[in-house]
Automatic annotation (TrEMBL):
Domain of life: Eukaryota
Protein's UniProt name: Uncharacterized protein
Taxonomic placement: Eukaryota, Fungi, Dikarya, Basidiomycota, Agaricomycotina
Length: 203
């Protein structure tokens, strides 16, 4: 197994701080404001190829919660995270709901919203389906179904990319594995349940 580390430069003098590394940036609370300048500095060298699908995956699910495509141009990792957050913070997009998540996940998103929204949830959800935007209607954050923190960004041997999300507590760590070692997902179906290392980011 090959260990791949992000750059970690020592400060030259006391007033100068070392650039942040992946170990510093994770977990990321996707619901809060993110310092994308800092994130860009720590992830600037990581490029996702054009026409790549990135699967947003919690460890307990057998399917991804959301798929993000890079389109016709390569994308930097921090730009993908920024795009993901823009989806989550905006009112839920009918286009995203109908085209970027699987039908069974669509139903679980609906159930999650109804549980969170109380007695008026059914009416608000129907309004969303009918194209009406209500201040209390579903936001994009419901797509994560409570998995509000990003714990890693990985690529498997076949070239598939994953954003790992979970609830705001540290996932189970392998006490032996290096948190930055190459995490082989080969042999597992996309979205298969897995343990993930805290603070993972490797190309």
């Amino acid at each position: 197994m090959q260990n791949i580390h992000l750059p970690n430069f020592s400060p030259v003098s006391a007033p100068i701080q070392a650039p942040p590394t992946g170990r510093d940036v994770f977990p990321i609370n996707l619901m809060n404001d993110i310092d994308f300048g800092m994130l860009a500095g720590s992830m600037s060298n990581f490029i996702i190829p054009a026409r790549t699908t990135i699967y947003v995956l919690p460890p307990s699910r057998d399917r991804s919660l959301l798929q993000i495509d890079t389109g016709d141009k390569p994308a930097r990792a921090f730009s993908v995270i920024r795009h993901l957050q823009s989806i989550l913070r905006a009112p839920l997009s009918p286009r995203v709901y109908h085209t970027q998540i699987q039908p069974d996940i669509q139903d679980s998103v609906r159930q999650y919203f109804l549980l969170q929204s109380g007695p008026i949830g059914t009416r608000l959800w129907q309004g969303f389906l009918d194209g009406f935007e209500h201040p209390e209607g579903p936001k994009g954050a419901v797509l994560l179904q409570g998995h509000s923190h990003m714990w890693g960004f990985t690529r498997d041997q076949s070239g598939q990319w994953f954003i790992h999300v979970d609830e705001p507590f540290s996932p189970l760590l392998d006490p032996v594995a290096d948190a930055f070692s190459t995490d082989i997902l080969g042999g597992r179906a996309v979205g298969a349940p897995r343990e993930m290392n805290r603070g993972s980011f490797f190309p």
